[in-house]
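We emphasize that the prediction below concerns an isolated chain of 238 residues; any contacts that depend on oligomerization or on bound cofactors are therefore not represented. The input was used exactly as deposited, without trimming of termini.
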Amino acid sequence: MSRWPATSEPAAAAVLESTAALLASLRRQPLLVVLRPSQPLDAAPLLERLQAVDLRHVELAFQPGPVWSEQLRELISLFPRLALGAASISHQEALEAAIAAGCCYGFSPILDPELLAAAAASGFTLVPGVMSPTEVHRARQCGSALVKLFPAASLGPSYWRRLRDPLGPSLPFCIAAGGLSPVDVNTWLAAGVDAVALGSALLSGLATPPSSSPTGADRLADGFDPSPLQALLAGLSV
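Result of the prediction step, given as a token string:
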């Protein structure tokens, strides 16, 4: 028996509402950016530029310690047009930190039914990571409306479409993540996934060489050229 409490009606309603909002937002703009700063506030200069080009969804990777929640909560206040979520939620401490920070949603690199149940009991939308057909099926059994296909680059863009016939047509909303670059986005969407998450490749693929060696909060944003991302977003958003 799971040690997590059963999901209350208010918590279940909160999950349904936040999940529906995330799905609607991703259908309008099927792109997410994953950042891994040493501290959340280090990402502020880059978040300002991403918000300026109307990017919507940004995940910040969990880091242990109270500073992470405090700083992420501050970023949520500073950037109201961004739907800021938490990445790398793979245990209870990370889940509690994401909830304390006030994140809109969270992503896990793994499928952990107990962690999903804990998130649901707290009224929090947690998207599990899946790779195999068995994991996709188990995610559906857990009630996950969205999954993160990870690591997507190891599987190829046609992988998700190949699961439709053996697993049935009611597959979850699929976000491909792991090893993808900006030039891969349209190929993967055309191949049948519903959204794409970009990590470090976003910065390496859309940055110009820095003129100096930045430190601290300037490092992530130094040399960042937003125009290719803006063009990509223009072709994706509806």
